Amino acid sequence: MFSKRMILVALVIVLVAVNIVLLTITGKHTQAPSGLGRGALVIVSPFQKQFTAFFDSVKDTWNQYFFLVSKAKENQRLKKALGQSLEQLNRYSETEIANDRLRHLIGFEKEIPRPMIAAQVVGKDPSAWSKTIIVDKGTRDSVRQGAPVVIPEGIVGVVVEASARYAKVLLLTDPNSAVDALVQQTRARGIVKGGGADYCVFDYVLRKHEISVGDMVVSSGLDGVFPKGFRVGRISEIVRQNAGIFQKVSVTPYVDFEILEEVFIISEPAYEDNPRER
Amino acid sequence: MTYGYHLIICLFLIIFQTTLLTGGGTAHLYDLLAPFVVYLGAYHLPRAAIPVLVLGGLAMDGISGGVFGVHLTVYLWMYVGVRWAIQFLQVGNVILLPLLVTAGVVFESLVVAFSAVVLASAPWPVDSIFPVVSGQVMWGAVTGPFLMLFFIRGQKVVDRAKKSYYAEKSPLRIP
User: Which residue among A203, A254, A277, B118 is least crowded, i.e. fewest CB within 10 A of its CB?
Assistant: First the structure.
């Protein structure tokens, strides 16, 4: 009744349909099914670490021996910047002490410090369509799924998968990323989402809030992932449409994701004083 | 030995593109495994190619933050497509081989872009497809055929080494 060719075509159509359905299901999750992603981390990441270490050492040798002149100039500039930063730090320390004293006076609870784990970037996502990195710390080092990742410049992303020794970090610029944030000056609140390329979009900022290009955006701490006050980026574009209740805001992250080498993973707060708070 | 060669090449390509080639301009970086899959389709039977494709696909999906399974899907379908195409095309032809590699890169770029724009939980804007796909295809068309030649040369070296090894082990070897 049916020719061999027709059966083959029908089979291919069915296989393609099944394939698309399966991809649609896995596409709804950021984590790989049944720990398959962890398996890839276990097998591939040790080689990535060795490769990265080798090329970092080559790069370091090059930088140390052939760019001494530029390094000397940079050193001078950094020393000057360090002096200014120390002066600023001194002012902030005074403010922090005053803040602690005032918080105590009005009965606010003391903020619990969260330990940070330093990790080295050993691999990056080769695809243009997803923004992830692999770091050399995993569950053995108390890194858990959902842990925030930062550097001194600002927020990097969040851990989405962790094996014993390695973890995959979803970067802030990936469309799957979201950080509850506010504008530092005006306290206008919204959600910073990855824009895909090297920018983010700041959604749900009400039109009534006065914000301007260059304003700093920091984490609000309300998402339960990122602690309050971490730098996210600065506002680079604002579009106020005639209709609608929100403004269209673009944010340029402070972190340069192309040159990331080391990051800090913030682990769970240590409740040593009062175990009942766990 | 052939399995070993394929697995080493596969692992090397994955590590190379996730560590060294991730500096600037990642948008134009195409998947270096695409020419490798075309090479496997053109020169190797499923028995030798499928295990490597499955392992390579799972490894890429595990490392990448995109839709899980998209690389595995692309590699398997690309392999089937190349096996089908070589029934009509002469693989050794200097014009057809680069065309086949370019077609492979186009196929992969479009499927991965489709997964990111349509299937992902947080889809990318549709207008981002053209610049990314066109850049990847251009680079794939320029460098892909050279990679393919590299794989073919490597296979010849492995075959020669295998032949000489067995010739030395053979009990019929004349001293």
Answer: A277
